[in-house]
Specification:
Layout: E1 3-9, E2 30-36, E3 40-41, E4 46-47, H1 49-52, E5 66-69, E6 80-82, E7 85-87, E8 94-95, E9 107-108, E10 129-134, E11 137-142, E12 146-147, E13 159-160, E14 179-182, E15 185-188, E16 193-196, E17 202-205, E18 217-225, E19 233-236, E20 242-247, E21 253-259, E22 273-278, E23 285-292, E24 295-300, E25 303-309, E26 320-323, E27 337-345, E28 366-370, E29 392-394, E30 396-399
Antiparallel strand pairs: 1-2, 3-4, 5-7, 6-7, 8-9, 10-11, 12-13, 14-15, 16-27, 16-30, 17-26, 17-29, 18-23, 18-27, 19-20, 19-26, 20-21, 21-22, 23-24, 24-25, 27-28
Amino acid sequence: MKKRFWLIAILGCCVYVVTACSNPAIVSPTFVSVSVDGGIDGVAGSYDNSEAGVDDSGMDGAAGKQIGSCTIDSDCPGTVCFKGSCVNTCALGFLNCDQNVTNGCEINAATDVNNCGLCGWKCDSHPHADTYCVIGACHDYCNNGYFDCNGSVIDGCETNLSTDDDNCGECGITCSADQTCSNGSCVPLSCYAVSLDTPNSRIEVPVAGWNLGLNDWTLELWIKAHDAFGGGFVTGNYAYNSVWMDYSDTTGEISCHTYGGGCPCGKGTGNLSLTSGPINDGAWHHIACVRTGGTGTLYVDGVKVATDIVTTMLLASSNIVIGQPAWHTTSYTAAPLLIGPYRFSRVARYIGTFVPRKHWSIDASTVTQYLTVNPFSTQLVDEAGGDNTSVVAKDVSASADTPCSLY
């Protein structure tokens, strides 16, 4: 015998009431047709009435349990007669999922997250959300301050509306380039910078998290040339299987390189070699070196300026330096630059033209980040967990001139 049950999922944080809600459910409105006869299939999982112990020889559905034979209700004390059998019937909304007559219909299917609407129908949990069973349908309600802006059930309520520059206070509210999101509002941006004051200027930081092998990465920072002295090393770990940036004080160009421990080197060899046009115009510029698969790309102010093949593994066997590398003091000196907000990520952040930001939200892909919320004093503070805070700072000073002072 087959019966069809219609589970009408009224999805939204306000059941029966059509209003705006602060913590909406993250699933879309759905009507699910399910059939109780050998099993049912729905959008969130599967259900089999054989597992629930449904006895189709008596009453159909998980609510019925055959107790004895009968002709009328009076033959069944405390139960009812149905098709010649005494059955234990459940009140509307309750189910006998354990098929134990002694405890009756023990499950409230309207609210039980492990038996939501049907025996064995379990509501899944998702990030930054509380899961409930409401009138027999699974709902996720976003935690305070979070929202499901991308419409995907998989990552739950993924957006922090208090700090996300692209979803500030509400989904789709984007802060402008001179603003950042703070407590759900776009506010004027502030950031910080350091000055490499001499050819021997150096900030050295631990290399934790930079060992990414052949995986994607992004090295990005804001720079401004002051050309007070000659020099070229900007940042990186100058050792085998490394990545670094340098600056030409003669052409005013910035370059990004990788080195796998041997040559040939240069463009087209697999050891990445990317060079911009001149950036020594007295203005702040955003520089991003990005690895995506086997391709490296250099962006200046959000515009792609060069690409090259890259096969180098990033093993990062030495500390990271900003300025003069301590292990090559006779060959390399610090570049004459101001350095603003700086970030290294274990993901390709950019794949096309973009508007550079001076503030970045810390996420799971951020390895290290500097100078967005913490100024330089005696240390360069790693804002992404602290494990890359500087251990050496020499001939470096805080700069009042920052990318954020452009506005």
